[in-house]
Structure formats: structure tokens, C-alpha cells
Amino acid sequence: MIGINSTKIEGVKIIDLFNYQDDRGKFNKVFSMAMAQSLGIDFNVAQINTSLNFSSGQIRGMHYQDNPSAEEKLIMCTSGKVFDVAVDLRADSPTFLHWHGETLSSTDSKMIHIPKGCAHGFQALQDNSHLLYLHSNEYDPNAESGIMYNDPFLNIQWPLKAKNISQRDIGFKKLNPSFVGVKV
Prior knowledge:
Elements: E1 3-6, E2 13-16, E3 19-22, E4 25-28, H1 33-38, E5 47-53, E6 59-65, E7 73-79, E8 81-88, E9 99-105, E10 110-114, E11 118-124, E12 129-135, E13 144-146, H2 167-170
Antiparallel strand pairs: 1-2, 2-10, 3-4, 5-12, 6-11, 6-13, 7-10, 7-12, 8-9, 8-11
């Protein structure tokens, strides 16, 4: 049975996938248009990516794309374990500048849905953690943006000490009082 759970951020949802398991292993149906629509997610897949993360503690994020290339994401951990985070950057949202963290692992059957206008990042909790991403829009380097993973205003509670962060991610700006959000 497929289920969906809301989080404290409007539009960020945790999807419990159908999980069939027997003595041979396990099977999950990851995505279908009918499934997404039945869960209230209007999502067309434009791009699929994977991310392999060699060491625990490393953080990737917090990324988003500006309009007109804003994107939704469906993310699942296929190997290892991660702490996946969404930050609401939609100025008109009641959860503007709130964050939600969710542990995803290869042993659960969960996906996280991140709507347009939310930044996304994660921390690997185990070596060699692997993620599968479904994107509603293709990557546009001209629309790429982000915020600092350790912005004191957000105070994201990463489970492990942060390490191995890319120069791009370190270079993102911290939020300031004049931050007005993103338009989606």
C-alpha cells in the first residue's frame, strides 16, 4: 500500500512506497504518473539523476533553481543512509524559511517530495550512500542557486559533523533580513 505523510513544510511530503518482499529480496514501484496523481502530486519527470556519496558526514546543498527553471524533486536513498533536508524559500508560504529533515535509507521504502521554491540538501550518514532523484525540470546552469548549509538563521540540525563540502556549496550566501524568497 502506498501512503503519503505531510511534513511541517507545506508541499513537502514523505511517500511510503509499495514494498513487496519475499525470500528473494524486495521490490518497490518508485514512480508512475497515476501513482503521483493519486497522491496529489502533479509531477512530470524531465530528468533522472543519481548521487553517490563516498563518506559519512559530507553535505551537498542547499540547492534550488530560479524561475523559469524551478523544479520539483522526488528523492529516494537506494544504498546507505542520508539526512535529507528541504528549506521553504517561497515568500508567500506559511512555512517560509522553515526546514524539514528526514532520514532516508535503503532499508526503508520512503521518498521525499520537494516542491518548487524549496532548497534541497542532504548529509550522508553512511559511507557510499546513493540517492536517486526524479526532477520535474531539466538542470539549467543559469538558474542554479543555493543557500548556505550552515546558515545560522535556519539553524539546520545536521546529525553529524559537516565535512567534504564543495567549493560551490561553501560559496553560497547566508540569508539576511532583506531576503524576500523566491517566486515559483
